[in-house]
Amino acid sequence: MLLKSKTSITSLFILLIWFPSAAALSVKDQYQQYSEVKTALDELVLANHILYDQGALDGYGHISVRNPSNPQTFFIARSVAPSVVKLDDILEVDMGGKVLNDDKRTAYGERFIHSGILNANPTINSVIHGHAASTLPFGVTGTTLKPIYHMSAFLGEGAPIFEIRDFAKPSPDTDMFVSNPDLGAGLAKVMGNGNFVLMRGHGYAASAENIRKAVFRAIYAVQNASIQAEAMKMGKTQYLTLKEAEISKATIEKTINRPWELWSERVRNQK
Amino acid sequence: MLLKSKTSITSLFILLIWFPSAAALSVKDQYQQYSEVKTALDELVLANHILYDQGALDGYGHISVRNPSNPQTFFIARSVAPSVVKLDDILEVDMGGKVLNDDKRTAYGERFIHSGILNANPTINSVIHGHAASTLPFGVTGTTLKPIYHMSAFLGEGAPIFEIRDFAKPSPDTDMFVSNPDLGAGLAKVMGNGNFVLMRGHGYAASAENIRKAVFRAIYAVQNASIQAEAMKMGKTQYLTLKEAEISKATIEKTINRPWELWSERVRNQK
Amino acid sequence: MLLKSKTSITSLFILLIWFPSAAALSVKDQYQQYSEVKTALDELVLANHILYDQGALDGYGHISVRNPSNPQTFFIARSVAPSVVKLDDILEVDMGGKVLNDDKRTAYGERFIHSGILNANPTINSVIHGHAASTLPFGVTGTTLKPIYHMSAFLGEGAPIFEIRDFAKPSPDTDMFVSNPDLGAGLAKVMGNGNFVLMRGHGYAASAENIRKAVFRAIYAVQNASIQAEAMKMGKTQYLTLKEAEISKATIEKTINRPWELWSERVRNQK
Amino acid sequence: MLLKSKTSITSLFILLIWFPSAAALSVKDQYQQYSEVKTALDELVLANHILYDQGALDGYGHISVRNPSNPQTFFIARSVAPSVVKLDDILEVDMGGKVLNDDKRTAYGERFIHSGILNANPTINSVIHGHAASTLPFGVTGTTLKPIYHMSAFLGEGAPIFEIRDFAKPSPDTDMFVSNPDLGAGLAKVMGNGNFVLMRGHGYAASAENIRKAVFRAIYAVQNASIQAEAMKMGKTQYLTLKEAEISKATIEKTINRPWELWSERVRNQK
Predict the structure, then answer these.
(1) In 3D, which of A140, C35, A181 has the Cα closest to residue B150?
(2) Contact (Cβ atoms closer than 8 angstroms) between residue C216 and residue C255
(3) Which pLDDT value is given to residue C23?
């Protein structure tokens, strides 16, 4: 968020001449020249491995991070499985879902999930999309995913469900992929101000203002889904009240470095 | 599929003199002389390990591949657990389920699942049979396994269930094994043009035009079964529409090398 | 079963002078002097590790094997967790549950499960007792565990449930342990000619004519329990018919060396 | 429990002059000077790793032990994930939840769970708090967790449920954390003479007279929760009678070193 306070005419002028050159820099060059890009990309690679190890992603799924040097682009791996992502696999993509830097490698067909959400909400800087098994039954049965406990308090009054048929054109029958800017914008609209959305017959998307928080939310939303499914079989369930969710979220999300340290250690030990 | 276009009299003549000599070659000789056989067998061994690691097979179960040099035979391991299969364990079997090359080692008693399906459908080149826990409840309760999400779109309008009692002779009571050509043909008939069949009180069979796709389908059918079972407990379930399944299948099955890379890396790291 | 055919007066005479000396031999001495004891004990240690790795036992539970040199005694570990059992931990116990060879180390309090079953049925040579989670709900709800598939065909018409209150004296309230010869005899009686019995509020016992088959049965009964529980939630379940169970059992139990090889390799690789 | 019998005037006098100096000793100094502190802290670190490995804790949760040299303080890790706790992470805390020895590192916000329970019950010397998934559905649906089998006999007539709304002031809406002495005292009151309490929308707390027994109870309560949830779906469940629970608890809790040995070996092998 280097640019956040540069709102004067002067800074806008600087931006105008600086942006094109930044866009001209390869991901590797940005990694070497900007320390905040280096930090973000190292964390992005690690987050890919953590999300697989913790069961929030499997052989598919992806995580993105907004470019800290340029809010109009984001970084995301080329089309490989999350657990094998390396620094060299990272692409830079713009808010229309276009891969930049003349990079010809195959991109995820669903990068529009990321461009859609990042474009719609400037406070969001990281997006995750996956197919974790526990989340699927909610989407296909129209059941609202709600916060069972403080760990997933960010679910608030419950996650909305994205029905791709409501946005697909010309036919409502699709390959279920958010594969163009319009579908990405539709998904972002359904997600609204929340940070989690279920995708019917497909999976979920999670978001946050930084990578660690997005990872935390994806992992605990997946766990919440398993627990809620069991609770619903057992009887009438008391979810967090809206007020409890709001207060809990503030407390618990101050502590996310605690599991992050453990999750990082686990994947490092697997090397 | 070397022989696919050789339909002229000349090629038939070549076949007639070439087949016996090919049949006379041991699996090892074919591996050394035909690069496409080498590729297929290396992948077959790896697929055995992957299917175990991903929970689609356990101490039992098997995968076959049609001989790329001779569509009338296929390769499959001798009777050992999938996770310990080595190149040296591979047998060559004909479409009647007869082990070739004078190989006296014990073959899987259920190789007729493979000969039955490969014989009935010339576009299928790889078959998998296993007992994964999540698939069993469907077969024994007569519940149709349907595509919950795009990953298992190939399930289409739902997998048929093979009831061995309908094909067993003289008595409908059997050891539940597809242990002769007639039962293999019956299973293939129930499977029809689909690529997945549940076997009541036994397990499942999956098929595809190549090893990687068959592996992909087995793994995601097993996961679909778990997810569908949970969804059915939660409420009325929206499966992929037939049209969604058809379109999704085309898209997702172009990407199967992505998880394959990860799955391969996992089993290689376990060595 | 060295002694099986020795029924002449001469052999009886030999037995009379040989037995005491055999009983006088320590487990270690028998291991060194009798090759069939060596084989049995090596397999017993391995079986302990396999049963833990495959989830049929946890930090508790045990497996025994009848002494191949003396049908009136059996071998079982001293009171340690199955996964850490070493050769040196093996005790010899008689059919009354008495530890032999003047061995003062702590024995399992539930060795009477083993003595009870081995004593009641001379064709049984190995017994397993554990608390695997999937088996518990059946015992506490009075639900019959039945064969879902050929792998657990040995369950036949269903496993009986041992209610310790029916056998405990003077009060029906106990510590739930089969901790004396009477309770062991009661358990064996409920088990009858079957090879699996559920113990209400406690766990299960499995048996077979040899270690490998007992291990096979324990592992697949535990899996059958999970699958059956899911099937019962899904709808009316078709179990194996009695005839199917009988025929399947004969076929599948000829193949138990196949998973045994894999299970052994797994625990060896963990060393 | 060095001080247990020191009830004479003399010992009280000794205490008065000894306590301040003990309190003045850093955790490290106490570790080096008092062998019972060394034993307790080594076991505390190991217990943290075991609880994670056995699924009773995840990236969150904690275990405490009363100071064997001073019953008015206890030891607990600073705010890090259980699986990465090292000796150097241990803090000393008093019965008001105040961190001693001028240690400025971040403490767990929920240390009041520990101070509350340890303060209310002088026979309790170790407390565990976690969020294990299987326990959550009970708390949020008001379902009583009861002993399914002898392993969790300590659950007795069933675990009470702590509703934080009943104790929170001024508003019943909180962040769900037991974050002050009053809430800790409330939790201890609900727990009463039992050794397990469910916390609605949060997790559980377990206690015992020593670390190993607390670990044993947490692990088997978590397993009991899974088993009971399955049993309740299957039919009317026979729990241990109160008398059975009482007798079973006495027997089984004499054997807790058996799984402890295995659990220790597992985490040591992961190093």
Answers:
(1) A140
(2) no
(3) 53
Q: Which of A43, A110, A244, A265 is catalytic?
A: A110
Q: What pLDDT does C271 receive? A: 75
Give the distance from residue A43's alpha carbon to the nearest chain B alpha carbon, in angstroms: 20
Amino acid at C234: M
pTM: predicted TM-score of the whole model, two decimal places = 0.92
Please judge whether B151 and A60 are an interchain contact, meaning their C-beta atoms are less than 8 angstroms apart.
Answer: yes
DSSP summary character for residue B210: S
To the nearest whole Å, the CA of A83 is away from the closest chain B CA by 7
Which of B36, B43, B110, B244 is the catalytic position? B110
Divide the 271 residues of chain C into consecutive groups of 10 and give the mean pLDDT of each group: 41 44 80 98 98 97 98 98 97 98 97 98 98 98 98 98 98 98 98 97 98 98 98 98 98 96 94 75
**How close A27 comes to chain D (CA, Å)?**
33
CA distance D197 to D190: 7
- Any D CB within 8 A of C269 CB: no
To the query of whether residue C110 is one of the catalytic residues in this protein, the response is: yes
Q: Which residues of D are catalytic?
A: 110
Which of D50, D227, D246 is the best mutation test for C, with the most CBs of C within 10 A?
D227
- C102, burial (CB in 10 Å: exposed 0-12, middle 13-18, buried 19+): exposed
pLDDT digits (tens, 9 = 90+) for A227-236: 999 999 999 9
- Among B145, B124, B244, B242, CA closest to B193: B124
- Domain covering A25-264: architecture: 3-Layer(aba) Sandwich (3.40)
C106–B contact, CB cutoff 8 A:
no
Q: Do D237 and C177 touch (CB under 8 A)?
A: no
- Provide the token pair at B64: 């076959």
* CATH number of the D9-269 domain: 3.40.225.10
- B229 — contact with chain C (CB < 8 Å)? yes
Residue B39: count of CB within 10 angstroms of its CB: 14
Q: A29-65 burial by CB neighbour count: b if 16+ within 10 A, else e?
A: ebbeebeebeebbebbbbbbbbbbbbbbbbbbbbbbb
Is A217 in CB contact (< 8 Å) with chain B? no
C265: Cβ–Cβ under 8 A, 6 or more apart, which residues?
Answer: B83, B84
What the block records as the tokens of C156 is 């036949």
Q: What is the CATH number of domain B27-269?
A: 3.40.225.10
CA distance B73 to B201: 29
Min Cα distance B233 → chain C (Å) is 8
- When pLDDT is averaged across residues A169-191 and rounded to a whole number, the result is 98
pLDDT in tens, A88-105: 999 999 999 999 999 999
* Side-chain half-sphere exposure of D182, counting CA atoms within 13 A: 7
Looking at residue D23, what is its pLDDT? 53
Chunked into runs of 10 residues, chain D (271 residues) has average pLDDT values of: 41 44 80 98 98 97 98 98 97 98 97 98 98 98 98 98 97 98 98 97 98 98 98 98 98 96 94 75
C-alpha closest to that of D128 among D182, D82, D174: D82
Q: At what angle do helices A35-53 and A211-234 cross, to 10 degrees?
A: 20
* Option in D231, D240, D252 nearest C137 (CB): D231
Q: How many CB pairs under 8 A join B and C?
A: 101
Q: Which residue of A has its CA nearest to D82?
A: A262
Please give the Cα distance from B62 to B83 (Å, whole number). 10
